[in-house]
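Data card: per-record layout.
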Amino acid sequence: MDFIFSIAILIMSVVIHEVSHGFVAHALGDPTAKYEGRLTLNPLRHLDPVGSVIVPALTYLLGGFIIGWARPVPYNPYNLRNQKWGPAAVGIAGPLSNIAVAVVFGLVVRFGAGALPVSFLSVSALIVLINLILAVFNLVPVPPLDGSKVLFALLPYRLLRVQEFLERYGLFVLFFFVFFLWRFLSPVITFLFRFVVGGGF
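The structure for this 201-residue chain is written out next.
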C-alpha cells in the first residue's frame, strides 16, 4: 500500500513539476507547451513508462527511496523574451513547484497533529518527502537536470568550456552522481524534511 501511494504521489508531483516549466515558458513568450496540450495536470498527458513507473518501482524496491520523472514539457528557448535568464527561470520553476507543494503539506503535518487522522498526516508527510527529493535532485547542476540551466545562466563567458563539457558528458556525470554521490544529499533532504514538518513527525 505504501508503494502504491508513493507511485501515485510521485506521478502527480512530477506532473506538477513539468507543467510548471510549461507555464513559466508560456509566461515568458513561448507557447510550445500550450500548443502541444501539455499545460494540463492530467497525468495521462505526461506519463513516461520508464520514468514514471519502472524506475520508481526499482528505486523503491532496491534502494528504499523513490525517484522518477515524467515526459519533459517541450519549450523553445529561442522564443523566450530573455535569452540569458529565461531558460534559468523555466528550469527553476520545476523544483520551486515541488518545494511549494512540500511546504503546503508540511504545514498540514505541522499544525494538523491531533486534529487530523494519523493516516492523512502520514500521506501528507510522504508528499513532503517525495517533493523534497524531486526538488533537491533536480537542482543538481548537471544536464539534463534543471539546476544546469541555472548554472549556465550564472557562468561567465570565459567558463563556456564548462558548459560545453557538461552538455557533452552530463549524462555520464549524472550516472556517477546517482551511484556514488547521492548519499551526500540524503542528510540535506532529511534536514529539510524536519524543518518543513517540524520535529514532531
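Known properties of this structure: The chain is about 70% helix and 0% strand. The mean pLDDT is 89.

See the next section for split statistics.
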